[in-house]
Each structure stands twice: as structure tokens, then as C-alpha cells.
Design brief:
CATH class: Mainly Alpha
Strand content: under 5%
Number of helices: 6
CATH architecture: Up-down Bundle
Structural class: mainly alpha
Order of helices and strands: HHHHHH
Shape: rod-shaped
Helix content: 55-70%
Largest sheet: none
């Protein structure tokens, strides 16, 4: 009987060590995911701060492009609102698309493209988009490791028992949008103008 009891005790110790080890791994991986998401948020805040100045500059040369300017500000303000990561990912997709349309629009205005302030803002925006892309790749790599651990056996048993859940990837709906927003001044790119004269609502200020 004594050997049987010893075997049970050894087995229980082994199981306990396994649970502790997997639990600690899950905690560590989750922390890495959270830290890498914080790095994305830092770059997103920089992007938010650039957009009002960018819109104001474009507005000075193309104020009648009301719909495009309004869409950028609306997308920016929606993206600023904090929420679950999957919601933030969706709002960032919308903002990226709106910025892309704004850059296409700028091709119709040679004086705007030659504006020193606009050129500086587009350089800062491109740099920010590159940093976001790099931070996104790092975040997604950490999410992949964490999700794999959450869904693999036997760690899936421990993950479900202690409330660890797979995290969403920071993906982009349009595969082409995985690249940073590019502001190209090459000739031949066209945009549209509705010809309407409408004042842009004063929604540029961050209401955080």
C-alpha cells in the first residue's frame, strides 16, 4: 500500500508542477500580448494627433471636399474611443481607408502637394504608419504564441479553467492595406470633387 500512496503523491506533485508551469507560461504570454498592444496604442495616438493638422491643411486648399474631410475626422474620432481590441481593429481599418481616400484627393491640388506644412505632415504620417506596421507584426506574433498555448493540449485545459481566452489579431480587411499609408506625389493619380461649397464642422479637437 505504501508504494501505491507514494506513486499517488508523486503523480499529484507532477500534475501540480505541470499546472503551475503552464499557468505561469500563459500569464507571461498574455503579458507580452498586452505590452505589445500598448506599443501599438502609442503609435496610434501619434497618428491621431497628426490628423487634425493634416485635415486643416487640406481644407485650406480643398475645403469643398466636404465628404472626404468629414469622413477622415469621423473615422479619427471613432478610432480614438477606447474599446475591446476587435472593435479598435475595425475602427483602425476604417481610419486607414479614410486616410487613403484623402491622399488620393490631394493629387488634384498641385498647390497643396507643394505646401511645406503638408509635405512635413505626410512625412510624419508615413513614419508613423511604418511604426504601426512594425508594432502590429510584433503584436500578432505574440498573439499567435499565446493563442497556440491556449488551444494546445494539455494547456487548453488549464487555460479554460483559469479564464485565459485567445486574443484577436490586429488584422486588416483589405490585404493591400497591410502596407503603410503611402502619400505619393506621382502624376497620373486622380480623385473626384463634388463641387459643393460646405463648411467643415469643427470636430477636429480630441475629446479624450
Amino acid at each position: 500500500m505504501f508504494p501505491s500512496m507514494l506513486a499517488i503523491i508523486i503523480g499529484a506533485v507532477v500534475v501540480a508542477l505541470l499546472v503551475i508551469g503552464v499557468y505561469n507560461s500563459l500569464v507571461g504570454k498574455r503579458q507580452e500580448v498586452q505590452e505589445s498592444w500598448s506599443a501599438i496604442e502609442t503609435e496610434l495616438r501619434r497618428r491621431y494627433d497628426l490628423i487634425p493638422n493634416l485635415v486643416e491643411t487640406v481644407k485650406g486648399y480643398a475645403g469643398h471636399e466636404h465628404d472626404t474631410l468629414k469622413d477622415v475626422i469621423a473615422a479619427r474620432n471613432a478610432a480614438v474611443t477606447q474599446g475591446p481590441i476587435d472593435q479598435q481593429v475595425a475602427s483602425q481599418n476604417n481610419l486607414t481607408a479614410a486616410l487613403g481616400r484623402l491622399m488620393v484627393l490631394s493629387e488634384n491640388y498641385p498647390q497643396l502637394k507643394a505646401n511645406e506644412n503638408f509635405m512635413q505632415l505626410q512625412n510624419e504620417l508615413n513614419e508613423t504608419e511604418t511604426r504601426i506596421s512594425q508594432a502590429r507584426r510584433f503584436y500578432n506574433a505574440n498573439v499567435k504564441e499565446f493563442n497556440t498555448l491556449c488551444q494546445s493540449f494539455p494547456s487548453v485545459l488549464i487555460a479554460s479553467s483559469f479564464g485565459f481566452r485567445p486574443q484577436p489579431y490586429f488584422g486588416i480587411d483589405n490585404a493591400a492595406a497591410y502596407e503603410p499609408v503611402q502619400v505619393s506625389f506621382n502624376k497620373g493619380t486622380t480623385g473626384t470633387a463634388d463641387g459643393a461649397t460646405i463648411k467643415l464642422p469643427e470636430t477636429q479637437q480630441d475629446k479624450r
